[in-house]
Amino acid sequence: MDHQGVYIDIHKTLLPHAVVHLFFRGLEQKGEVKSYCNGANAAGRWIFQIFNREFVEELAQVLNRALGRRKKKPPVLEVMSGDGRLIEFLQPLIKRQCIATDNKDGRYNIGYPKWVETLDAMEAVEKYLPSFVILCWEPYLSMTGIDIMKSGTPLAWIGNPEKCGHTDIFDHPHIPLQSKYALSRHDFFVEKEFKTDIFFFNCKPEWI
After folding, report:
1. Is there a domain that residue 2 lies in?
2. Which domain holds residue 57?
């Protein structure tokens, strides 16, 4: 906890997986994971995917292989980005401009930085014509991921297939990363039962 007795903000900096897992293991033993992820942390941050250094580095490696040495350099775009923390962690690792957008519909009590552009997901794709789209924990039963996938744009879909997005997206060709470092609010940290991954659509196998 910080000096005021409030749990730290686990996403203030990018911490190693082992440290993050240990932190949430302690929260789980106290029955406080849900409360913590719903804003009971020093930043008041809502958390769905729990980022750590190795997880972000894995994603960055795939993106960099996909981007390669193309002459055209459209940006990497995260839609439904919330407070944009993932893009902040990714940008130093990717040799391409990264843009975060969110329609900021008020569903969650999220403190949006000014640099997160207020924009609907599909409008953002149409505006920026990105080289790659990241979609992390889209709302449950949302069809947006499917619409982006159908546009043909390479897509990294992050989340728990049972708790976010629409399962129909997995009827289409995709490649799971099978990350050892994916952590989320729905995991069981003591039993090491983890429920999320990064799933890639419109991507070549050699990128993964």
Report:
1. no
2. 51-181+188-207
